[in-house]
Amino acid sequence: MDRSEAVRWRPPRSCEDYWSEFKHCKSFRNRFHYYYAYGASPSCRQWKEDYSNCIEWEKHRSNEAKEALQMSERNRVAEQKKFTPVWKLRQDPPRDWHMPLNEEKPQDS
Question: For the chain, what are the domain ranges?
Fold first, then answer.
């Protein structure tokens, strides 16, 4: 990659977005909710590292900071994709989709 391509590269998010995510992660409300849902405190370290790397990129165009941001975003996307959907997606509508609903008839569960 030549110098002009490196200069044109932008982080996937603005540095303020990383800082906002870090502040949200550290907020009392989020920590309380996370502890209630998962039984542990959330780790906000990655958001702070991403913010630091973003600032480092903005100031010094550090290649290490750029690669760290790219890797962090890839990991975040991969983490979101690894969960299977809760609902089974239909390929076609039900055969009786056009019929009126029968309110007294119990539905399949």
Answer: 13-78
